[in-house]
Design goal:
Oligomer: single chain
Order of helices and strands: EEEEEEEEE
Number of helices: 0
CATH architecture: Roll
Helix content: under 10%
Structural class: mainly beta
Number of domains: 1
């Protein structure tokens, strides 16, 4: 992530090391704060990402592209296991066998 800062006639490039994550105001099942971009689990190998959707924070099930309420879950009954920035490997979805 980069930005530019202008001071008079000179312009210098500044790199940021931090990404601001929006606090949802909610806590997971264990009391940990939930932020947008957190990865959560329900304990059954299903993984969810906390996203802002239609005016509220929800947990979107990985592996689904549904744009309606199916595939979404309440945040406060899940556990935070990481986030999409520090733990991108958690976004991988195991293929479900019938």
């Amino acid at each position: 992530m980069e930005t530019f800062e202008t001071t008079g006639m000179e312009q210098r490039k500044i790199k940021f090391r931090y990404i601001a994550m929006q606090f949802t105001g909610l806590h997971d099942r264990t009391g940990k704060e939930i932020y947008e971009g957190d990865i959560l689990t329900n304990g059954n190998e299903e993984k969810f990402e906390c996203i802002f959707w239609e005016g509220c924070f929800v947990a979107k099930l990985y592996g689904t592209e549904k744009k309606d309420e199916q595939g979404y879950h309440a945040l406060n009954v899940l556990n935070v296991i990481g986030n999409i920035y520090d733990n991108p490997e958690l976004k991988e979805v195991k293929e479900v066998k019938p």
